[in-house]
Amino acid sequence: MDPVKNVEALKGTSTRIERILCPVDFSQASAKAYRYAQSIAGCYGATLVVQHTVEPEQYVSALYAPSLELYEQFRETQIANARQELQRLVDTSSGIQVECVVKEGLVADTILCLARERAISLIVLGAHGRRGIDRLMLGSVTERVLRHASCPVLAVRPPAPGSGNQSATGEPVPIRRILCCVDFSAHSRRALEYSLSAADVYHAEVTVLHVLDNVSKSADVAQETDAVIENLEKLFPPGAVRSPNTHLEVRLGKAYQEILKFAAETQADLIVTGVRGRNSLDLEVFGSTTYRVIQLGPGPVLTVPI
After folding, report:
1. Mean pLDDT by 10 residues, the chain (306 residues)
2. If we measure between CA atoms, which residue out of 269, 289, 196 comes closest to residue 32?
3. C-alpha torsion angle, residues 184, 187, 189, 192 (rounded to 10)
4. CATH number of the domain that 227 lies in?
5. Secondary structure letter of residue 239 according to DSSP
6. What is the domain extent for residue 13?
7. Are 51 and 167 in a shared domain?
8. What is the pTM of this model?
9. Which residues pair with 273 in a beta bridge?
């Protein structure tokens, strides 16, 4: 894949990804997220900012250091080690501009602050999945960033144990099929713009999906489906010629369940969805659809705010 050709192809489009922020904690989840950030930066000709946050307070022993001098030594050691780890990580990158940043503080706060300071276009972070009763709970950092970031956020799940999905850093990420989920709210068009842009640079197929929820038994399903297809067509820019690799799909049922089912059926490599907002008033919508798709989905999920 030629990044120069990809950048030329993007001229004249409304989607710009110029600075990507990839927070890492050196876990498998963040290592996989870094692969995606590295690949996207290469495709869009973007600068990649790789960030690690040091939290000395998370180490109980540091809180009971016998002197301020020993505490400062511990703190400086943590920062120096983080810089070395980041350097080892970015040494695997080639052909892209990478900057390493080490911050101190609460992880989510430092990510959001740096994103604002650097006018970040996209945040790519690892979403730490959980098991059992906590299956529907995301890590606090991931959730906070998703709720409060003003730019799109790509949440990348760690490889499943024994999946064999442990590709080396620097290898192209597989994005061949993109699923764009729309509900005709104000953010739907933005989600579609990012989906089509990613399809251009990765030469991928796009399926634009709308789920009809709470359809009454007396409804004319065929008529409602035709109306949805017509509205899906209107999401595309006026006069634009829709690619043969772009498909429209309508499903009936619970939104997140149908999204996950369709993603599994089509082996989608990327799910793109809009989010209405980042405050507590959106908790129900965020929790019932986007939240579950991120946690239960088969691959990375890109959330696009208005």
Report:
1. 41 74 91 93 94 74 59 79 88 83 91 96 82 48 87 86 52 88 87 94 95 76 90 84 88 92 95 69 56 86 88
2. 269
3. -100
4. 3.40.50.620
5. T
6. 1-172
7. yes
8. 0.84
9. 181, 303
